[in-house]
Amino acid sequence: MDLPERLKWLRAQHGLTQRELAKRAGVSNSLISQIEQAAVNPSVATLKRVLDGFPISMGAFFSLERRAGRQVFFRAGELVEFGSNGVTMWLVGPLTGERKLALLRECYPPGADTGPEMLSNEAEEAGLVLSGEIEITVGEECRVLKAGDGYYFDTCQPHRFRNRGTEVCELVSAATPPTF
Q: Which of 169, 21, 33 is nearest to 106 (CA)?
């Protein structure tokens, strides 16, 4: 399923109208309609906000058709891929609602970012830049991290990631509890 189909299906499973989901998520019902009609591709922050209206994590949302199991090892093609605004993320781990940790491989091409809205949720996040460089804003603080640099912060603080460099930035991040 693609994103619009997933959202329609999930909304139907919860017995919600577009208007009810919009009210829960704090967005306009026209935005929900546009996403479901594939008229807009929401930013990561906007999609997270919409999914909080259920609530469901992004990882669970993008793995809806998969069955949970006792899988321990995950080949590259088995990772759940999602993203927007040029950012691609791959979720590692079992696809259950009982996960206590989200581990992500993230790829930011030049110019890509998590969106104009600052992200905010309730978790702790840490990451390590593998290649390239990434500008990370957390609250009032902004830094450019390069390969080998890391970060760790409380995600209740508004934050944003963007690649202002000329090379692809790849990083690995972990969050607990899972927000994706």
A: 169
